[in-house]
Specification:
The chain is an alpha+beta fold and about 140 residues long. It folds into 2 domains: about 70 residues, P-loop containing nucleotide triphosphate hydrolases (Rossmann fold); about 45 residues, no CATH class. It contains 4 helices and 4 strands, in the order ββαββααα. A hairpin with a 2-residue loop joins β1 and β2. The longest helix has 14 residues. About 15% of the residues are buried. Bound molecules: adenosine-5'-triphosphate and magnesium ion (MG). The site of adenosine-5'-triphosphate (ATP) has 11 residues, from β2 and α1.
Length: about 140
């Protein structure tokens, strides 16, 4: 089976700091993979390289066969990334949060449709006008 994520000799320097010193790893489809290390070990820097956000100083990595060095945009278009903190603006409504996000990625004339589709797909239509910060205390229980 082909690895979903593969890294070979991944390194990253920030000036004199060597943040990541040669990471080799393989993660297979369906596998749950934990990357552990003390503060400053280079975990976030590694994830930034694997997601195509940060260019490695040396080495290579592939996500579903796509090179994070040669085709970082293709990698970003392929993956989903769930951050530790939810990136939701609490004072915007659900609809406004989605409109903001969609506006970063889509042509203006596609935003409204995409937002409606997402609201309905995730069962958020009825809370679309409520500020996102109130959702946790809202009527719905997840
Ligand atoms: N943009 C940057 N510029 C300079 N140094 C950086 C930068 N990003 C990270 N570093 C340094 O690289 C090293 C690795 O940092 P990184 O954030 O990847 O570690 P981490 O394992 O995610 O740590 P933590 O557990 O605290 O989240 C640290 O010494 C950090 O200070
Ligand atoms: Mg970190």
């Amino acid at each position: 089976m082909r690895p979903a994520v593969r890294a070979r000799g991944l390194r990253r320097r920030f000036g004199a700091i060597e943040a990541v010193r040669g990471v080799d790893l393989e993660v297979f489809p369906g596998e749950v993979f934990g990357l552990l290390g003390p503060n400053g070990a280079g975990k976030t820097t590694t994830v930034r390289m694997l997601t195509g956000v940060l260019r490695p100083s040396e080495g290579e990595a592939w996500v579903l066969g796509k090179s994070v060095v040669k085709e970082p945009e293709a990698v970003k278009a392929t993956i989903g990334y769930a951050t530790q903190e939810a990136s939701v603006y609490p004072y915007l409504t659900a609809r406004q949060n989605l409109e903001f996000r969609a506006g970063l990625y889509l042509p203006r004339n596609q935003v409204a449709n995409a937002v409606e589709e997402a609201l309905s797909r995730f069962g958020l239509a009825e809370v679309a006008r409520r500020s996102a910060g109130n959702h946790a205390q809202g009527a719905r229980s997840f």
